[in-house]
Specification:
By secondary structure, this protein is mainly alpha-helical. The protein contains 6 helices and 7 strands.
Length: about 200
């Protein structure tokens, strides 16, 4: 029997490394294993949720998937030594709407514009937590059709419109070529063929 196993590479570790942070940022606990997608959906989601306990952890996870440790400015294409804009309180920053956000923001040394890992992606400008995007993507990877709108709405506390938007954007992105899709990397599988 073949088992579908997905490894999550954590920021600051090398792909294939057996180290990963625990909830407190320490190394992987002894005996912690790669994510086994053959487990039930609930077990996979519980494990992913434990490995990505905060919004900042979800951003770091996406940064590693998209940039492999070297940030790339989506505005000018410059790679490398960009400036990470650390929040004043060290944890979160205040958004234009007055809410606290753990979004990780960078400033390009070449064009001087700010960006994050979601700039230029289907998640750009979203008000839905990035952690929710990642968890729903894992649900879709676990079950080909994925959860229904009502399930996402109820499970993640979203409005009907937000749940519909979220699922549609993820499914559309999974149909794109793997090099253009961030969600293919999250789901760890090939994209679905485009619907006729």
């Amino acid at each position: 029997q073949e088992v579908n196993v997905m490894s999550i590479t954590y920021p600051g570790t090398k792909p294939g490394s057996t180290e990963s942070p625990d909830m407190n940022g320490g190394p992987r606990r002894a005996g912690e294993r790669p994510l086994d997608l053959s487990m039930g959906t609930t077990a996979v989601l519980t494990e992913v949720a434990e490995r990505l306990p905060t919004e900042a952890a979800a951003y770091e996870f996406l940064e590693e998937l998209r940039w492999q440790g070297t940030p790339v400015c989506p505005h000018c294409g410059s790679e490398g030594n960009h400036v990470f804009l650390r929040p004043a309180n060290g944890l979160s920053r205040t958004t234009n709407r007055g809410k606290q956000s753990e979004r990780r923001v960078w400033k390009c040394r070449a064009c001087k514009r700010q960006f994050s890992v979601i700039t230029g992606t289907v998640m750009h400008g979203t008000h839905v937590p990035i952690r929710t995007w990642v968890l729903v993507t894992f649900e879709i990877a676990q079950n080909g059709s994925g959860p229904g709108e009502r399930d996402v709405q109820r499970r993640y506390g979203l409005s009907s419109k937000s749940a519909h938007f979220l699922l549609q954007r993820i499914r559309d992105d999974l149909r794109r070529p793997p090099d253009d899709s961030l969600f293919v990397a999250i789901a760890g599988r090939s994209p679905q063929p485009a619907a006729a």
